[in-house]
Each structure stands twice: as C-alpha cells, then as structure tokens.
Amino acid sequence: MRSARSGLGSAALIVILALQGVHAAEDMGRVYVKALATYIDADSDRLVDDEVAGGALGFGYSLSEHFNVEFDLQKLGMSGDPSSNPDQDQTAVNLNLMNIYNRSGLFAPYLLAGAGIVSTDVKDGNQDHDDLQLQGGAGLLTRLWSDRVSLRTEVLYRWQDASSSLSDVLVNAGVSVALGGKAVEAAPVVSPVVAPIVAVPKDSDGDGVVDMADKCPGTIAGARVDAQGCELDSDSDGVVDRLDECPGTPAGAKVDARGCEESLILRGVVFDNDSAKLTAQSELILDSVADILSKRTHFKSIEVRGHTDSVGTDRYNTGLSERRANTVKTYLVGKGLSAGLFTTKGFGESEPIAPNDTAEGRAQNRRVTLEFSQAGQ
Questions:
Q1: I want to staple 205 with a disulfide (CB 3.0 to 4.6 A). Which of 58, 96, 219, 228 is the partner?
Q2: What is the pLDDT of residues 120-130, one digit of tens each?
Q3: 69 dihedral zone (left: phi>0; alpha: psi -120 to 50; beta)
Q4: How far lies 10's CA from each of 5, 55, 272, 282, in Å?
Q5: What is the mean pLDDT of the chain?
Q6: Which are the contacts of 34, defined by CB distance < 8 A and separation ≥ 6?
Q7: What's the confidence (pLDDT) of residue 91?
Q8: What phi-psi label fits residue 274: left (phi over 0), alpha (psi between -120 and 50 degrees) or beta?
Q9: For 56-104, how does the pLDDT look when each residue is reduced to its tens digit (9 = 90+)?
Q10: Which fold has domain 266-374?
Q11: Among 1.10.1040.10, 2.40.160.20, 3.90.226.10, 1.10.1790.10, what is the CATH number of 2-179?
Q12: For the whole model, what pTM was predicted?
C-alpha cells in the first residue's frame, strides 16, 4: 500500500520535471496535463486514517473561455489500523467538467463535477469491489509564471456507491501544465472595400478648367485663362494678353491686331466753357495717358485732333478745336514725350459722333482724340 503511494508520487515528480521546458498554461484551445497530490478526509466507515494518500495524473482540453473537459487516473493508498483494520488501495478513472472564471487572470477560480469508476482493493482479500463514484467541488488555478504553468488547488466531495454509500473529502494540490502553443484564432474575414468609381471631370485643353465649365475650349497650352477657361485680356482691349504687344491700353482705345492703339478718345478730358484751358480732372487723365505713351516705342507719329459741338460758327469752332488740340499736345510734351512725335489738327463741328440737338449729344461731340501711326505704316 505504501509502495502505491510512493510509486504515484515518483511518477508525478517525473512528469513535473519533464515538462518544465514545455510552453504550458490552461489557455483556451490547448491540451494540458495535471499532477496532483491528494489528502483524504475519509468516510468513518472506511476505518482508515485521514492522510496524504496518493494523488492523480490526468490530461484535459480547454473547450472554450469557461469550460475544460479532463480525464484522470487516481491512485490512493489508505492506511488502516494495523491491529484490526486492513489497508485499502484504490484506483479510479474519472471524467470531469470544469467551469472556469477569469481564465486569463492571475487567479482563476473554477467549479468541477465528475464521474468515474473506482476499484477498491482491501488487503484482507475479502472485500475487493468496483463501484461508481461521483465528485464535485471548487478550486483555484494560480499562474506560476507567464502563461505556462499554474498551481492547482481544489477541494472535492466524493461519493462512492459501495455496499454502503461512502463519502469522502479530497483535498488536491499540484500543477497544471499546458502542452504546445496557444491556439491561433483565425483572422476575421474582412470584405474588401471597393472604392466608388468617381468619374474625373475631363479638361481636354489642359487649361485647368474642366470641359463642362470651359467656355473657350481648345486653349493653347500655357495660356493664362480666367475661371471660364478663356484667355485673359487684362486691359480689355479685345486682344488676349498672350498676343497683346501693347498691354495696359486705356479704356475706349481702338486697337489693331497686336493690341496697340490706333485711336483713342480722351474721355473725361474737358475744357472750361469757350476755352482751351484744361480742368484739374482733365490733367489727371492726361497724366495717365502720358505714362502709357512713354512705354510705347513703336509709334511713328500721333495726331491730336480737336472737335466741338455745333454751337457757334464753323470758323470759330474750327479755331477752338485747334487750340484745344494744341493744349493737349503741350501738356503731354510737358510730361516728357517728344514734341516731334505730335501733330495737331482742329476739326471743329465737322465730325460729330452724336446728335447736336441734345445736351448729352453735344457733350460727346466736344472731345479730343489721338490718332496713332505705327512705325512701318
């Protein structure tokens, strides 16, 4: 009987030592082994001592987060009174179900329920028997290091269906060691995200304005355009900047294909009544005109033409228009332009641009214009 306890203890020690290098812990999806020593608080009808009587070896599998199933072989050697009660050896096989809580924590309490067959060998040779046994109780798994080995302690109530029912309390303590690596959960299947197909607006001429908004398709590469895709004409003279050889044309000027002035009505340049004297406002306008003309180097000549309305005699108006043309020339020359560039002529009332029978029409007819001759003409 003592040899049974000794043999089981040696076997348990061998299992523990052999598995020290095995990656082990009772994690979900892993097989594990257990080695337990057993203290029995025996039913009084057994007539044996309460003692450390042997233990159990077994293996199990973690079914899920909260449940393990396991099989074990239990060997107990119980000492009777040498003078009157024989020793008893028991061998049992059990199938257990464990309900585990806080599996991944440092401490994992559990409940256990199991059933098995126990064979009792009474050393007097007359009372050997095989019986059904049921067991249930609670225990605690305590991780010893990492996720490999756990200390296992439990208290079980055991019922044996012998000729007279027997009930024992078993206190087990030992280790539980998982075999192999952790089960790898399959990666979730992620449906590919299909990006919506977005039609990119087409810009056929590459000017930065899509076709649907481009009012001037076919723009030449490199040309500067406005928000509508049309080439810029900064001075609004009708010739785009790319072709304009005379940028900054004053408003109202008639230009040629190069964007250079052919004629210009000096709008806003007016004189005192029946006089050739410029007003202050007129001088400001002529200052701007002089600045523009100073940048034009391609003019051969500029004729300053004076015009009047129909009030007064034709002879008088012709003379007045000539004096006014000379006043404009003198002012422009005074701003640094060459006197040799200019000629003057008075047209009087002979070239009206509006009817003379209204005040508005007569105001339009009282004007000074510049007529330009290009070099090479």
A1: 219
A2: 888 776 667 88
A3: beta
A4: 9, 11, 133, 123
A5: 83
A6: 56, 57, 58, 59, 60, 70, 72, 152, 174, 175, 176, 177
A7: 92
A8: left
A9: 999 999 888 899 999 999 998 888 877 777 888 889 999 999 999 988 8
A10: 60s Ribosomal Protein L30; Chain: A; (3.30.1330)
A11: 2.40.160.20
A12: 0.44
Q: What is the mean pLDDT of residues 27-49?
A: 86
- Burial of 105: CB neighbours in 10 Å, binned 0-12, 13-18, 19+: exposed
Tokens of 162: 């012998």
Per-residue H/E/C for the chain: CHHHHHHHHHHHHHHHHHCCCCCCCCCCCCEEEEEEEEEEECCHHHCECCEEEEEEEEEEEECCCCEEEEEEEEEEEECECCCCCCCEEEEEEEEEEEEECCCCCCEEEEEEEEEEEEEEEECCCCCCEEEEEEEEEEEEEEEEECCCEEEEEEEEEEEECCCCCEEEEEEEEEEEEEECCCCCCCCCCCCCCCCCCCCCCCCCCCCCCCHHHCCCCCCCCCCCECCCCCECCCCCCCCCCCCCCCCCCCCCCEECCCCCEEEEECCCCCECCCCCCECHHHHHHHHHHHHHHCCCCCEEEEEEEEECCCCCCHHHHHHHHHHHHHHHHHHHHHCCCCHHHEEEEECCCCCCCCCCCCHHHHHHHCEEEEEEEECCC
The first and second tokens of residue 333, run together, are 């020359």
Least confident of 245-254, 277-286, 302-311, 324-333: 245-254
- Give the pLDDT confidence of 168-198 residue by residue, as tens digits: 999 999 998 888 766 555 667 777 777 777 7
- Using the predicted structure, report yes or no on whether residue 44 has a pLDDT greater than 90: no
Residue 98 CA to residue 17 CA, distance in Å, equals 25
Domain positions in the chain are: 2-179, 266-374
129-167: pLDDT as tens digits: 888 999 999 999 898 876 778 899 999 999 988 777 889
Longest dimension (CA), the chain: 169
Other C-beta atoms closer than 10 Å to the C-beta of 195 total 6
